[in-house]
Amino acid sequence: MLNHQTMGQNDLQRSEPSFSDGTLAVVAGDSYYLVHKGFIERVSEPLRAAICRLGSAHLLEGCPVLVLEENASDAHQFLRCLYDGMYVASLLICMKGVSLEIK
């Protein structure tokens, strides 16, 4: 398990999705993601509870650090679904509309 107290930023790789205006560093495995704290709190009750318990002692790129037990690949997929899900849903709706017009 990752020990965020001893692991420094140099030991971690910034991965996508990450945002220049991110307010929360999510660490999983050897990767971290700069995401939007308010968005994560809104879409996930368990993560909101974990974020509420965070102190300000551990920062990564100036953001509080939330360490997940999941591996980097799983965290990447989870975050992509959260952030890109709205795009995918709207794309599917548009595609459905196009297919209805073709029929």
How much is the radius of gyration in Å?
Answer: 17 Å
- What is the 3D shape? globular
- Total helical elements: 3
Provide the domain count: 1
Number of strands: 5
Give the overall average pLDDT: 80
CATH structural class: Alpha Beta
For the largest beta-sheet, the strand count, sense and barrel status come to:
5 strands, mixed
The secondary-structure class comes to alpha/beta
Low-confidence stretches: 1-7, 98-103
What proportion of the residues form beta strands (DSSP E)? Answer: 15-25%
**CATH overall fold name:** Potassium Channel Kv1.1, Chain A
Q: Return the string of H and E elements.
A: EEEHHEEH
Which strand order does the major sheet show?
Answer: 1-3-2-5-4
Helix content: 40-55%
CATH architecture: 2-Layer Sandwich
Distance between the termini: 54 Å
Brief summary:
This protein has helices spanning 37-43, 45-52, 72-102, and strands at 13-14, 24-28, 31-35, 59-60, 63-67. It is α/β, with parallel strands linked by helices.
Would you kindly provide a written description of the structure presented here, covering whatever features stand out?
- It is a single chain.
- The protein is α/β, with parallel strands linked by helices and 103 residues long.
- It has one domain (9-102): Potassium Channel Kv1.1, Chain A (2-Layer Sandwich).
- 45% of the residues lie in helices and 18% in strands.
- It contains three helices and five strands.
- The protein has helices at residues 37-43, 45-52, 72-102; strands at residues 13-14, 24-28, 31-35, 59-60, 63-67.
- Strands 1-3-2-5-4 form a five-stranded mixed beta sheet.
- Helix 1 (37-43) crosses helix 2.
- The N and C termini lie far apart (54 Å).
- Residues 1-7 and 98-103 have low confidence and may be disordered.
